[in-house]
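Hi Y.,

Following your request, here is the sequence exactly as I used it, all 325 residues.
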Amino acid sequence: MPPSGNIPDYEWIYQKVIHRIAKISMSNHLDYKWIEPSLVILVLDFGLVVALVYIILLLIGEGRTKWMVQGLILLMLAEAISKTFKLVLLSFVLEKLVLGSAVAIAVVFQAEFRKFLEQLGQGKFTQLLPTKPINVSIDKVLDEIVEAIKELSQKRTGALIVLETNTPIDEGVFSVPGVQINAEVSKELLLTIFQTTTLLHDGAVFISSSRIAAAGVILPLSDRPAPRQWGTRHRAAMGITERVDCLCIVVSEETGSISLAEKGSLNRPLTSNKLKELLEVRYFSTTERKVTPQIDLLSRKIGSQGRLLLQRIFRLPSSTSKDNK
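Below is the corresponding structure, written out as tokens. Let me know if you'd prefer a different format.
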């Protein structure tokens, strides 16, 4: 029985566990089936499982799975806590939620999972973790976009470009995800895509992480009333910016006017110089970084998210608070 003094019960239990481990380790005849796992081993076990799940989902899904990963980790953490305190009903419900969430993620990203398992089974580890550096300046990306928009406007060629900002865009928000490209942003490529003789000119170009992720993307239209002179491209730009945090550039096919959509509203008409100024303020500030190799990007994500998780669990002071002190 625990002592009736001022020593809390959990400290008494901890002392008993340490005493038990020391007693077993001093014995000449160890019977490993009687060794109880210490608190450190339990924390290490849980941490390794969380890290494994986090790494796998980051590898196959990148930014699209960020919130799903955090939700799954929180469910696993809650399940471990409920089992620690022997909350039978809560742990049962959380166990089923964790299992269902894992199945849901596997269903949503079945193509990515299949590709990941195929490459893993074939031993193509270099394809899983490409290390070829890609150095792209955000200034160069904006220059290429603005130059392409300027020429498209002069030729009165319709265009629609979606720019991902702070929040990663799940392609499920698109009516049609389009054709995957994953190419470097260049004026020539944008002009080629929006030529009326190509098959992808009617859709939008989706730019993510300073690269052209897809073309021929069909965007959801806005339900808000709009002037009659605004065509489908303008309503599509309003619709996508209403649903997600992003920017959308529109070039009118009839007049060649340039518009920038944000949060469901259109800023128009714009000159190419004014467009560049707005993009430097709204887009450059949210993506002011260089595109790094995927392995370096993965390590940065794991490191930052891991520090945040540890700070929330153990209430560790952040580096900024240390600096302020």
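Residues 37-133+292-325 form one domain.

Thanks again,
Q.
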